[in-house]
Amino acid sequence: GQQLNQSPQSMFIQEGEDVSMNCTSSSIFNTWLWYKQDPGEGPVLLIALYKAGELTSNGRLTAQFGITRKDSFLNISASIPSDVGIYFCAGQLGAQKLVFGQGTRLTINP
Amino acid sequence: GAGVSQSPSNKVTEKGKDVELRCDPISGHTALYWYRQSLGQGLEFLIYFQGNSAPDKSGLPSDRFSAERTGGSVSTLTIQRTQQEDSAVYLCASSLAPAMNTEAFFGQGTRLTVV
Question: Among residues A69, A99, B16, B97, which one has the fewest Cβ atoms lying within 10 Å of its Cβ?
Fold first, then answer.
């Protein structure tokens, strides 16, 4: 079945630094989604991508749908304390189930 | 309601008892997922319902786990003869028909503790 490899598994950065994380797949997707999960909460959708090569921004967040349809990255610029949490990528092909990455745990030192 | 609703939010049960967890998806969403998340871990896929298709049960960890979706709306995840390793947060998500390029939205989860 499809598998997603998300990296890095964890990040420890200083406030104000930029963050980059990515997901790669063994097969293609036609939808990529990025979620953030705060402690004790369900994951919240940040960005949705639907076209190969698509680059989408949401405030300080930028995500891209890789041209091969097998990868996606998420960048966070000028990190702030509230960016702390677990970030998940997810991919989907047609009506098949969503496949999630293992998550990237972001910790920010003030 | 406007979002995915899960109940109860917390459940403490004794080992060996059965539990039922409920998910009310967003109205009109045909796809529904159940995931399990242990403390500090990722999302473990359990089951996927899509419209009238047979559910994808490939993630259910044992035959003690089962799920139903009645009338294409509300779903119930049942765990029989609970074990301590079943303790986790159980998350539900729903989306419009996936082929329409839509996003999945999560509920707040049910935290299950088996003592």
Answer: B16
